[in-house]
Amino acid sequence: MRIIVILIITTLLGNIQAMATPFQLTQEYELIAKQPTIEEFWQRGEFSSFKSYDQLDIHYALFFKPENTQCIVVAQGRSEGYLKYKEIAFDLASNGYNVAMIDHRGQGLSERELLDRDKGFVKDFNDYVLDMHQWLSDIVKPKCSNDMFLLAHSMGGTIAARYIQQFPQTFNAVVLSSPMISVNGGSIPDWFGRPFIKTSHFIDDLFSEQSAYFFGHGPYKEKFFKDNDLMQSEIRFQLFKQTYQQFPQLKLGGVTWAWLNSAVAAEALIFENLARIKTPTLVLQAENDTVVSNAKQNQFCQQLHALHSQSCPNGQPTVLNNALHELLFEIDEIRNEALNQTLIWFNQHSHE
């Protein structure tokens, strides 16, 4: 009943809220009516898995048409899986792209490394990079006959930055949506936070084989729209919530000391190796983001642009006003702008 009410409201406001776009993008007011079409598209996808270097099952989804010669790889954020990204995959495919999505180890449908499935854990962020490289090399690249682009969100942005530092020839261009260059530490300064996390992880590692939750984190808890800090689109929030109810294996709790320590280490490596980023990179920043650090995105863009002027135009992220963290699931005005900027950037760096 709630979604029906949302549908009526968004239908009335749809033409006002929807930002004019040169691309085919789904609008909030038509999302419910369009679900059968999106599901029909989804059923034509290829869903499979491969074994990582350390024998974890890593799941992925592919949407390829012979007539589409350009590919967009999507790297999701922490706790997300490709099942959440049906609308995104549909919209990208509707604009003539093949789409490839990977569930990072420890989340989505991919295998967890700990017995407690709720714990957000990784030993080293470079494991995410190695998984992606294996998947791209063995499965995705052979299917892509021309350009390849990377769209990465949040934690996926950390993985993307480290990936293009190590494998700079893979993608024509990259878009980082609300990238987790650094987690949002609030008022805690780096000089205190970094050594504290490293020391706490060291102590935790001595006494626990399964890595403890970071302070204030715990098992999965269901969120409600009014309390969420991710998106302002209620209909998109309810649809993704329904997905996690339908597939409870997707649910993931808070982060562990091991994950956080690895995230801090990855941030340091990103800045230490900025000169290695040769791939044209655009950063989309959510103005009201409380999940990741916008200040670190600003620093990343300023330094990267100084090294490689083809990235971060004017040395700054592209700021989406009034946006929360999940730009790709926001209200139409924000989501349309994010996807417009993404596809324009990819078009600018296409060889076709």
From TrEMBL:
The reply on keyword Hydrolase is yes
For the keyword Hydrolase, the answer is yes
* GO MF term list: hydrolase activity
What keywords sit in the KW lines?
A: Hydrolase
Give the matching Pfam families: Hydrolase_4
Residue span, Serine aminopeptidase S33 domain? 68-332
Q: What is this protein called?
A: Alpha/beta fold hydrolase
